[in-house]
Amino acid sequence: MKKILTLLSLWIPVLMVSQNPFDLLNAGKSISQNSNPDQIPKAWFSNVEIEFGVNSQVEYDYALYDRNDKLVSGMGINLERKVSYGILYSINYPVLNKLTIGAISGIQYQSQQKISALKIGGILRYHFINYESVNINLMTAYNIALSNNIESQMGNIRLGLQFPITKTDVFNLNLNLFGDYNYYVVREKILNELYESPSTLIFRSYGFSLGLQF
Predict the structure, then answer these.
(1) With contact defined as beta carbons under 8 Å apart, do 173 and 164 qualify?
(2) pTM, two decimal places
């Protein structure tokens, strides 16, 4: 455990400044150098996570039209970076040794533009030792709009590194560090310009989640 904490202290700053998949993969390999190559017994497991994210970039794209409804130009602007939070549930099952696939559902709130959306999707995990150890995970999800200012759209991708903090006979307490990409089709004006036609809103974020695995 001491070795894992030492390695994490070296890798967390790297994860906070990069969303390169190879950074996460190398971090997982470093933490699990003594990975067991033996076949792992297959078993169902669930995760419930509470998440918190901080935007690194919020990009709003829109078009401007003249009074005759003719396109003048396409525009893009970076909005103020804020925070997001939510909750996710997943149920998972191994498809190959150390590789699991899961179905996820949840809800996320973006404080920038007050966007709320349900999420339905899937998650792939590669477990470096066993199903209760360090894993690198890739999630994709469909955003179901709860807010009137966005449309329902396939638009969430998340890459994370998860590791256990505490283990009991009933559950594990896990920490997941992730980079998040969210794409929304916007239905309402954001800048309130006279001939503004909203298009898309893209959130790039970093975050963490605390969850129970059982």
Answers:
(1) yes
(2) 0.81
